[in-house]
């Protein structure tokens, strides 16, 4: 017991350090977990002698991941995706199996071993791909949904593979009967789960929600995910599939977002342990010795899977970008490949050298996947030759502009961009918009809008839509990093334009202004202004006074609205909190260093904080006189970034 606890403690310590280090250098956390597993595994430090000891805990991470994914997919959406799941997914699995089977048979001259290798290589990583798609906000894209559909069929295809491999090793002649029986059991348990999810679970969570107890809600969520996974496991299917079905049924309920929030902490921690167990299985000596063969096999596997998926997807009428994007996302070997390899090894179908090489292929490909998916768009652009969007834009400008000079350019034609377009149309103000969503552009053009396809961060696109000549430019998407790229190009083309930038909050307000934004409109602060305008209006304040106050705040760049008091649910992520300004009310106790000192004697700028107000004897002074002396029990209201506020508190109390 003590040995197991110490090993786990060391593993967690290494994982914490590596995740921190990898995030500092902008690498995915999955790579940190894999490296932590390699360090803790039998071949390096030997803290974990047998990775199988943690197999159950790791599998729970996959179960919760698939449960949270299921929450995003309703049954109607799954029915709508059936062409991808049973068309594209089946073609990928069967095609990959056939090709890998022939290659492995030419190499080994053994059908049973070749099938085990082919089955492992044909499957991709559900855990890694879905996690990376979610982190990079690609789950809802067409290529992301295609990838998920293929992964779902792969999870189903694992079942016959896990049944066939032991039968091949035992030379049992009843393979067909056994397989049909297993599939019948699988269909039955899926029908039972869907029935329970449709009729029982919504009522159950309705009753639980009435109790208003967070612990009960979390416990019920975990219980449902694990029971569903356990039921499919008992009947020979993967636990992940059962959890996905349970999540999919609850995804149609009003509890969807609460369920996802409750499950996320458990999911992320257990998924981390899963990736460490993958790293533990890598035998470093064999991996290094056969690295050239492992790398060659990985390249062959990736080329075959990418070519097969992209070809079938294009044959089914999908766009080249989505077809290649889905294929590149699924190039790797998956976690169920390790299960198949382990099963084949247990039954004597694969030698130790082949097992080591297969694990090496899996670990290396899974380690590369986060980097590949986060750079998916530029990789796809290397393969797909787009028709030049400049030609289409120039053509539409000359044929559809009716000879009018554009007064406004809108970068981004989402909901906000479309609303602005309608108001501009109503006032007769000519404008043009550019957006990088082809479906949205197609629908908008069909509806009569003057919007063109292209990336606003590309100088040639901006030049084609006339960004050099317009007086007013609006960046309407609330993505600050992308807005910074667009601002850089816009200011090079048109230094004199008035550029209004929409931002989600004031986290990068200064950065956007320094990049060239004439005015930044943070959603959070503007929503606050709109709310207070309604409140003041209902309270009888004259409308002119309200408008004057709002105008003052906007002209002051929301100066009085930046700081806020943090709460227990405030996001304190270091990267985020360091860009926000918090308010801190500090009571000066008897003996504090600052007592007796005048406000102008204290170097507030040096400590990078502002004194926003002083409260004394229940009376507040928003702008205290500079010669005011601080007294015991005074409350000073400080504003600044969290670390500076903390340091200033120490300075005022102790000097």
From TrEMBL:
InterPro entries in the cross-refs: Cation/H_exchanger_TM, Na+/solute_symporter_sf, NAD(P)-bd_dom_sf, RCK_C, RCK_C_sf, RCK_N
Chief localization: membrane
Membrane topology of this protein: Multi-pass membrane protein
Keyword Transmembrane helix listed: yes
Domain RCK C-terminal residue range list: 570-654
Sequence intervals crossing the membrane: 6-22, 29-48, 54-73, 85-105, 111-130, 150-169, 175-196, 216-249, 269-288, 295-317, 323-343, 355-373
Subcellular location: Membrane
Gene3D superfamilies given in the database record: 1.20.1530.20, NAD(P)-binding Rossmann-like Domain (3.40.50.720), Regulator of K+ conductance, C-terminal domain (3.30.70.1450)
SUPFAM superfamilies (alphabetical): NAD(P)-binding Rossmann-fold domains, TrkA C-terminal domain-like
Assigned GO CC terms: plasma membrane
UniProt KW keywords: Antiport, Ion transport, Membrane, Potassium, Potassium transport, Transmembrane, Transmembrane helix, Transport
Positions of the RCK N-terminal domain: 405-522
Protein name (Swiss-Prot/TrEMBL): Cation:proton antiporter
Organism for this UniProt entry: Idiomarina abyssalis
């Amino acid at each position: 017991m003590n040995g197991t606890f110490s090993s786990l403690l060391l593993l967690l310590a290494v994982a914490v350090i590596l995740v921190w280090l990898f995030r500092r250098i902008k690498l995915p956390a999955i790579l940190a977990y894999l490296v932590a597993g390699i360090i803790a595994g039998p071949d390096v430090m030997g803290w974990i002698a047998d990775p199988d000891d943690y197999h159950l805990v790791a599998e729970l991470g996959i179960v919760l991941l698939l449960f949270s994914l299921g929450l995003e997919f309703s049954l109607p959406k799954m029915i709508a995706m059936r062409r991808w799941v049973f068309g594209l997914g089946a073609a990928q699995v069967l095609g990959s199996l056939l090709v890998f089977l022939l290659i492995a048979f030419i190499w080994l001259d053994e059908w049973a071993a070749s099938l085990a290798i082919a089955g492992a290589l044909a499957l991709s990583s559900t855990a890694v791909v879905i996690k990376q798609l979610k982190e990079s906000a690609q789950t809802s894209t067409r290529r992301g949904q295609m990838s998920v559909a293929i992964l779902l069929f792969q999870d189903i295809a694992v079942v016959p593979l896990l049944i066939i491999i032991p039968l091949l090793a035992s030379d049992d002649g009843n393979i067909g009967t056994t397989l049909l029986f297993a599939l019948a059991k699988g269909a039955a348990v899926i029908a039972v789960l869907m029935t329970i999810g449709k009729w029982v679970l919504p009522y159950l969570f309705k009753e639980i929600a009435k109790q208003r107890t967070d612990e009960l809600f979390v416990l019920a969520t975990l219980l449902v995910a694990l029971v569903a996974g356990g039921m499919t496991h008992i009947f020979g299917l993967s636990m992940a599939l059962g959890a996905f079905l349970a999540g999919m049924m609850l995804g149609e309920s009003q509890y969807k977002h609460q369920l996802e929030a409750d499950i996320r902490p458990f999911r992320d921690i257990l998924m981390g342990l899963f990736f460490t167990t993958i790293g533990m299985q890598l035998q470093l000596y064999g991996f290094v010795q056969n690295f050239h063969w492992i790398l060659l096999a990985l390249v062959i596997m990736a080329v075959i899977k990418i070519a097969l998926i992209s070809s079938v997807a294009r044959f089914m009428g999908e766009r080249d970008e989505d077809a290649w994007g889905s294929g590149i996302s699924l190039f790797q070997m998956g976690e169920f490949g390790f299960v198949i390899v382990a099963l084949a090894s247990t039954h004597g179908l694969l030698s130790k050298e082949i097992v080591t090489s297969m694990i090496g292929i899996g670990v290396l490909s899974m380690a590369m996947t986060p980097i590949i998916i986060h750079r998916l768009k530029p990789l796809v652009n290397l393969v797909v030759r787009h028709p030049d969007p400049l030609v289409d834009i120039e053509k539409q400008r000359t044929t559809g502009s009716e000879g009018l000079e554009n007064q406004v350019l809108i970068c981004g034609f989402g909901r906000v961009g479309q609303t602005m377009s309608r108001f501009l149309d109503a006032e007769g103000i000519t404008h043009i918009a550019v957006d990088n969503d082809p479906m949205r552009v197609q629908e908008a053009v069909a509806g009569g809008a003057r919007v063109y396809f292209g990336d606003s961060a590309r100088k040639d696109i901006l030049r084609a839509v006339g960004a050099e000549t317009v007086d007013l430019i609006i960046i309407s998407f609330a993505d600050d990093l992308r807005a910074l790229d667009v601002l850089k190009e816009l200011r090079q083309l048109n230094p004199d334009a008035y550029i209004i930038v929409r931002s989600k909050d004031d986290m990068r307000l200064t950065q956007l202004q320094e990049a060239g934004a004439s005015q930044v409109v943070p959603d959070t602060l503007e929503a606050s202004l709109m709310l207070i305008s309604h409140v003041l209006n209902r309270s009888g304040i004259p409308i002119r006074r309200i408008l004057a106050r709002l105008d003052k705040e906007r002209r002051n760049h929301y100066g009085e609205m930046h700081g806020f008091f943090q709460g227990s649910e405030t996001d304190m992520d270091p990267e985020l909190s360091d860009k926000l300004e918090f308010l801190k009310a500090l009571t000066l106790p008897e003996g504090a260093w600052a007592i007796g000192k005048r406000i102008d004697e204290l170097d507030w700028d040096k400590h990078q904080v502002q004194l926003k107000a002083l409260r004394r004897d229940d009376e507040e002074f928003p702008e205290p006189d500079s010669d005011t002396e601080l007294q015991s029990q005074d409350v000073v209201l400080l504003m600044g970034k969290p670390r500076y506020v903390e340091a200033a508190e120490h300075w005022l109390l102790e000097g």
